[in-house]
Amino acid sequence: MTQTQTQTWQLLAQHRAQTADVSLLSRFDAPDRFQAFSAETDGLLLDYSKTALDTTALSLLERITAEAGLADRISQMFRGDKINTTEDRAVLHTALRAQTDEPIKVDGDDVLPAIRQTLQQMESFAEALRDGSIRSGTGAKFTDVINIGIGGSDLGPAMATLALAPYHDGPRCHFVSNLDGAHIADTLKGLDPQTTLVIIASKTFTTIETMTNARTALGWLRATLGDGASAHLAAVSTARDKTSAFGIAPERVFGFADWVGGRYSLWGPVGLPIMIAIGAENFRQFLSGAAAMDRHFRTAPFRENLPVMLAMTGVWHHNICGYDSRAILPYDQRLARFPAYLQQLDMESNGKSVALDGSPLPHDSGPIVWGEPGTNGQHAFYQLLHQGTRVVPAEFLIAAEAHEGDLTDHHQLLVSNCLAQSEALMLGRARKEARAIAAKRGFTGDALEQMAGHLSFTGNRPSVTLAYPKLTPFVLGQLIALYEHRVFVEGVVWGLNSFDQWGVELGKELAVSLLPLVDGSAQAEAYEAKDGSTRGLLSKLTHPHP
Ligand code: F6P
Questions:
Q1: CATH no. for residue 521?
Q2: Which among 36, 205, 272, 411 has the fewest CB atoms less than 10 Å away?
Q3: How much is the mean pLDDT over the chain?
């Protein structure tokens, strides 16, 4: 019997069928609905009361997590078992932020001493760059840092560096990820090679986008600095042989182990640009926030456990209610890249069709994740959220306090808008009320009925809200770790491996084999072997082929 065919899953589906008509609003007839269906840790609140989850659904979901062996899986991850079975690797991003000296062992060796040493190396380097004691090849202070990386070697540090802009007092940080030459060309345009440091961040140090951009950046540095270019390079990687082949001095290489997945890597050397921007002390606060969430995740009971509850809203919405995407809507401009960051975290982790044993999954797995900051999204795609034929569970994020103490009017409007959206999604507007509005606007008869259709909202659209005191390094650490663990819990319930990413390989292989057809070096047979569409597009996009 597969996981979703258990009696518990069937009971949960039956319960949904029996309660689907209960309106979200009427659930608040129970006066303690908000207190009972929200949870808080260290000032971070998760409100899941505006969903159709009730006590029965939660008890069944709790049984589902127990049947999936969640408690054991959590212990296995934190203690360094090789739970990434297809790559035969432990999953220990949590060790990068561990605040304990209790050994964490992989293959019998404690990993903490090396982690602490690397953190120390990062701090010395970052602080020396910031105070100017590490200088450029021409003796100047570094004013700018370019991080070249993609996926996990870009999204995390780029997102977090933007999120923590109020704490920036170091060199300016720029991020180049796209293979499209436009990205590096536009970034280099405003910069001076004499005062710019380039960090090449790649776990494998083979990723074609990163290596192509790295070579271009090296050429740009050399054109001005000649052999002095090497003083302007640093690398973040697990592959020291490859970084030294690229000409990067060993003391400028910040290493990490293969048990840190790319999309989970910003807590270690991949976070170097964040540390350079905000300083070592703030970076430690960032790690502390994540460590606090780790402790909470390991110890809080089911109903009070934020990552588990956030995961339960996901399982409920995607497997039981049949909603196929989730919108991430930060009412916090500095979290503008958070949805993109979560797309990799969530979709690369749980976008799988097979179970741990390789057999096809009998149920849906990871949803489509998308989003934009509010309020901009309100003026773009919220129309579909409110009146489209699909229900999209929304996840709002909002701070109680902004960094701009002199712009409280902005923040008050921001909070009102955020709360108004979750309220509007829940309440909707009944036909009767829509008719009254149409009548007020002068419509009568058939025209009034037609207009009432356009003005009606079904409502009953679920959302959750994460509310935090202020977007500090600690809070950002909490938020990211919360989502990491949410993705993990969902993966455990779905019975899949959240830590590999075989689905990205095929496209990479085909891109390599297509290059000779694009640059014209391939034989005619290779061209003939391609499908008609690819051939047609090749002749449109390249010079004429044989
Ligand atoms: O192609 C996907 C991926 O492997 C991601 O998992 C990873 O974060 C990204 O590419 C970059 O990889 P690397 O850090 O090895 O350059």
A1: 1.10.1390
A2: 36
A3: 96
Check pocket membership of 504 for ligand 1, CB cut-off 6 A: yes
- Residue 514 alpha carbon to ligand 1 centre in Å: 20
**Could you tell me if 532 and 432 lie in one domain?**
no
Mean pLDDT of the region 406-420:
98
How many angstroms does the Cα of residue 342 sit away from the middle of ligand 1?
15
Per the structure, the complete domain to which residue 209 belongs is given by 105-282
pLDDT at residue 2 in the model: 63
How many Å is the Cα radius of gyration of the chain?
26
What is the CA(368)–ligand 1 centre distance, in A?
20
Any domain includes 400: no
The conformation of residue 251, written as its DSSP 8-state character, comes to G
pLDDT of residue 260: 97
Residue 263 Cα: closest atom of ligand 1: 8
Q: Does residue 273 belong to any structural domain of this protein?
A: yes
Query: Does one domain contain both 236 and 132?
Result: yes
pLDDT of residue 321: 98
Quote the percentage of the chain above a pLDDT of 90: 97
| 30-59 confidence digits (pLDDT tens) | 999 999 999 999 999 999 999 999 999 999
**Ligand 1, atom 10: nearest CA belongs to which residue?**
151
Which residue do the tokens 């090296």 mark? 218
- The pLDDT assigned to 407 comes to 97
CATH number at residue 249: 3.40.50.10490
In a domain, 537, yes or no: yes
Based on the fold, state whether residues 190 and 260 are members of the same structural domain: yes
Sign of the alpha-carbon torsion through 209, 210, 211, 214: positive
**With a 6 A CB cut-off, is 501 part of the ligand 1 pocket?**
yes
Residue after which a domain boundary falls, among 282, 306, 326: 282
Per the CB < 8 A criterion, the answer to whether 293 and 287 are in contact is no
Ligand 1 mean position to 53 CA, how many Å? 37
User: Using CA atoms in the order 109, 115, 118, 124, what is the torsion angle rounded to 10 degrees?
Assistant: -140
pTM score: 0.97
> How many CB atoms neighbour CB 12 within 10 A?
23
How many domains in the chain?
A: 3
DSSP label at residue 545 = P
Single out the residue in 234, 259, 282 at which a domain terminates.
282
Residue nearest to atom 16 of ligand 1 (CA): 202
51, part of any domain: no
Stretch 272-297: mean pLDDT: 98
Which residues are catalytic, by number?
A: 348, 379, 508
Q: Are residues 124 and 202 in the same domain?
A: yes
Find the 130 Cα to ligand 1 centroid distance in Å: 28
Nearest CA to ligand 1 atom 6: 262
Distance CA 408, CA 219 (A): 47
The pLDDT of residue 1 is 54
Average pLDDT over residues 370-394: 97
pLDDT over 90 (residue 3): no
84, 86, 87, 150, best to mutate for ligand 1 pocket (most atoms within 8 Å of CB)? 150
**Mean pLDDT for the stretch of residues 478-506:** 98
Q: How far is CA 87 from CA 83, 110, 187, 356, in A?
A: 9, 20, 36, 12
List the beta bridge partners of residue 398: 331, 467
